[in-house]
Amino acid sequence: MIDRKRDPAMTSPSPQSGVDAQAIIQQMVAKVVNITDPVKLSATVAELMTGLPDPLQRQIACSVGLSNPLYAPDDAYAARMWRGQQIGLTEFADIVLRLKKAVKTVRAPRILLACPRKTASTFLSAVLVHALGAQESLLTLPVARLQNAGALGAAMREHEMDELALLRACFIPNGFVSQQHVRCTPYLAAQLALYQVKPILLKRNLMDSLVSLDDMCLEAARSHPADKFYFYTHLPHAYKDMPDDRRMATLIRLYLPWYLSFYASWRKCEAMGQVAPLWISYEDDIKGEPAELAEKLAGYIGGAATAERIAAAIVANTGKPTLKFNKGVVGRGKRMSDANRDMVRDYVDLFKDEVDFSDLID
Predict the structure, then answer these.
(1) Which one of 3.40.50.300, 3.40.190.10, 3.20.20.80, 2.30.30.240 gives the CATH number of domain 109-360?
(2) What does the alpha-carbon distance between residue 152 and residue 143 come to, in Å, rounded to a whole number?
(3) Which of 30, 121, 186, 248 has its CA 20 to 30 A from that of 82?
């Protein structure tokens, strides 16, 4: 049971008390945002809301619903708040259509940062959020923060767009930046056009990416138990005990096909005229001159995203340990064995008649 006397966030607000209702909502959401059992989640929210006025309960329920996709109100809430209200398929479709129309009135930057892992995407996302004053968002499921996806067990999901999450993000007043490991399809291209989302794509030498990915997986294996490690990396927990060459061969077999699919999908859709993304190179842009990167981003994003603001954000975010910028070294793939490098080239050659990967391979 929750002791409301000891927890000021659980006390009922009143005009006399001066309690900030929004602070109460945020604290309550924080208590339940990572609960993965729907029954426990509903019961916990109901307990937290006990004794609070109906308008505040409604705000809490809606905030939790926008932060944890597993939440559904209990019967008591439904009976009290939705008396006589029924919704069917037609009403649902009408609401969705009204939302699609309404998002066009929100004038704010909407950026999809599409990337494979270990391409400095976390760094660039932080730069854009800083420069644009936007919110870091996730378009794969409707959660409050990126970290909640992992806590809810969703880190292994394909990063396809979730329409509800996309609609939700489009109402963020200052816009959003969404960092996703997502391949392109003609349907995704149409979604981006419909919701006026600009794609920025990151690319990096494939062998360097795999070596950097190995570092990430080893670190995760040391800090996660076997079951959580699998749902974070798709790899067996014994990965950490493999010799260097076998670890790299494992990554080539399990991850490289996705990397190639990512690049092929975006380049094919671009060649078909379905998307017009901005490509950012790890070697030439991220590791290049900040002023040149800032100019490139500003020219593509437009609006308030001036080169000066982006350059200042690059300087402000460079070197922060929380950005997971790793070693930031170009040419790390040279440590791979000749056999593994040949395996990478064999995979790349599968697409040689369709996609030019010469800028991603030694």
Answers:
(1) 3.40.50.300
(2) 9
(3) 30
Nearest to 286 by CA among 226, 209, 207: 209
* CA atoms of 148 and 154, how far apart (whole Å): 9
Task: Give the residue extent of every domain in the chain.
Answer: 8-81, 109-360
Rounded to whole angstroms, how far apart are CA atoms 333 and 227?
A: 29
Separation CA 347–CA 140 (nearest Å): 28
- Helical ranges in 272-350 per DSSP H: 290-301, 307-317, 338-349
* The pLDDT of residue 324: 47
């995704």: which residue's tokens? 188
pLDDT averaged over consecutive 10-residue blocks of the chain (362 residues)? 35 42 88 93 94 92 92 92 84 92 92 95 94 92 78 82 92 94 96 96 96 94 87 89 96 96 97 97 94 96 92 84 54 90 96 94 84
Dist. CA 235–CA 255, nearest whole Å: 10
Our measurement of the distance from residue 231's CA atom to the centroid of its chain's CA atoms, rounded to an integer in Å, reads 16
**pLDDT confidence of residue 255:** 95
Query: CA–CA separation, 276 vs 272, rounded Å?
Result: 10
d(CA 114, CA 182): 6
List C-alpha distances in Å: 259 to 116, 234, 360: 6, 15, 10
Contact 280, 201 (CB under 8 A): yes
Residues near 146 by beta carbon (within 8 Å), at least 6 away in sequence? 136, 138, 179
Q: Is residue 200 within 8 Å of 280, Cβ to Cβ?
A: yes
Sign of CA dihedral 302, 307, 311, 312: negative
Single pTM value for the model: 0.85
Please provide the DSSP assignment of 254-291 as one string.
Answer: HTHHHHHHHHHHHHHHHHTTS--PEEEEIIIIITS-HH
The rounded radius of gyration (Å) of the Cα atoms in the chain is 23
The first and second tokens of residue 104, run together, are 């066009």
Distance CA 248, CA 12 (A): 56
**Bridge partner residues of 278 (DSSP):** 200
DSSP state of 152: T
